[in-house]
């Protein structure tokens, strides 16, 4: 199979998944929260294994504490994905605000004026998205994760499909 065909097929699958996620962002958000809970649970089990296999015992307590926290968060997200989705949406909103502010500050201090506008614009968009999340938090908290994932899958799919078409022409 040619690389261009693989890019194109992968891109089309991601486009379909992105459209499906955007079509039903609530279900996608719950599924994403459950998946994140499973990852936390797996990380907690691995960390617990490290705690029990720490030969010198110097870091056993830290490994054990981190394992316990990961397992608790994992079980909580799996057992109650609705409240987990709302909590993760708040984290995403805060992350957008913080990363946007950081990009904005870096952009304003950047010596290269040609690149400055890109960072300033990127930071401003992230801050705007964070503010929009919190401005309508009651209405969108259970759907924002699915919507963002759908947009990301769609963008990745279009990008990979474009790479597939471009590599066929060359």
Automatic annotation (TrEMBL):
Per UniProt, which keywords does this protein have? Membrane, Transmembrane, Transmembrane helix
Q: Please tell me the species this chain comes from.
A: Thioclava nitratireducens
TM helices/strands, residue ranges:
31-52, 61-79, 85-105, 117-137, 143-166
Q: What is this protein called?
A: Acid-resistance membrane protein
Instruction: Cite a single Pfam family from the UniProt record.
Output: DUF308
- Name the domain of life: Bacteria
């Amino acid at each position: 199979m040619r690389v261009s065909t693989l890019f194109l097929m992968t891109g089309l699958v991601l486009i379909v998944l992105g459209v499906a996620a955007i079509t039903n962002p609530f279900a996608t958000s719950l599924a994403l929260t459950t998946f994140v809970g499973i990852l936390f649970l797996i990380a907690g089990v691995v960390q617990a294994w490290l705690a029990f296999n720490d030969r010198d015992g110097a870091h056993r307590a830290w490994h054990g504490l981190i394992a316990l926290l990961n397992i608790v968060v994992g079980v909580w997200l799996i057992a109650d994905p609705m409240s987990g989705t709302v909590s993760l949406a708040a984290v995403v909103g805060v992350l957008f605000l913080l990363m946007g502010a950081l990009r904005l500050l870096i952009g304003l201090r950047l010596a290269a004026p040609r690149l400055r506008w890109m960072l300033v614009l990127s930071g401003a968009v992230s801050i705007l998205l964070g503010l929009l999340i919190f401005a309508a938090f009651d209405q969108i908290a259970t759907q924002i994760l699915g919507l963002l994932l759908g947009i990301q899958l769609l963008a990745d799919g279009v990008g990979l499909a474009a790479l597939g078409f471009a590599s066929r022409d060359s």
